[in-house]
Design brief:
By secondary structure, the protein is of the alpha+beta class. The protein has helices at about 5-35, 40-45, 50-65, 65-80, 165-170, and strands spanning about 80-85, 95-100, 100-110, 115-120, 130-135, 145, 155-160, 175-179. It has a four-stranded antiparallel β-sheet. It is elongated, with a radius of gyration of 23 Å.
Length: about 180
């Protein structure tokens, strides 16, 4: 004895299968529509970040989870300076990091709840001239910040107190690269 419920169930199952298949096809189409970023393209964009083409590549790299992981590997290879995580046994000063002839310091402005300054200082005369600060937090998207080209050290970046770069700087697990 068959009731109308069996036909409705088959229809619902067919609709769910169709919806699932369409969703899978859409994901595949979106994946194919956006070409992947190549290693050389990403490395070139990190080394010469001030071109419009490089900006497009870097913006895509930040938004693409696969490219974001690749970003750290490439940044580590092309960096002028690599700032690793702050060691757990360190002094606990998360406002200062040192590596490869450079210092990064986060300083508060004199205004209460005012902006902060991130200073990039060269400690060795022979250190290269970085053009981009790459920040790789444990949680969240990478932050890419162009550096002033004037070459007068320390370089000063003015940041809002709630800027992602400020939050990442205060996290001991965040890695920084100057490229």
């Amino acid at each position: 004895m068959t009731t109308g419920g069996g036909h409705e169930r088959a229809s619902l199952e067919e609709q769910l299968f169709l919806a699932s298949s369409l969703a899978q096809d859409l994901r595949a189409a979106v994946f194919e529509a956006v070409p992947r970023i190549g290693l050389s393209e990403l490395a070139h964009s990190l080394l010469v970040p001030d071109t419009p083409e490089a900006q497009v590549v870097l913006d895509r790299a930040v938004q693409d989870p696969i490219a974001a992981r690749m970003l750290e590997q490439v940044a580590r290879r092309v960096a002028v300076a690599t700032f690793a995580e702050v060691a757990a046994a360190s002094s606990g000063d998360l406002a200062h990091r040192t590596a490869d002839g450079f210092n990064l310091r986060l300083l508060a402005s004199l205004a209460e709840d005012g902006p902060l300054y991130l200073l990039v200082d060269r400690t060795e005369a022979g250190a290269g001239a970085p053009r981009l600060l790459v920040c790789i937090p444990v949680r969240g998207e990478p932050v890419l910040t162009p550096l002033p080209e004037d070459g007068d050290y320390p370089l000063q970046l003015l940041l809002a107190p709630d800027a992602p770069l400020v939050e990442a700087f205060r996290d001991p697990d965040t890695r920084f690269f100057l490229t």
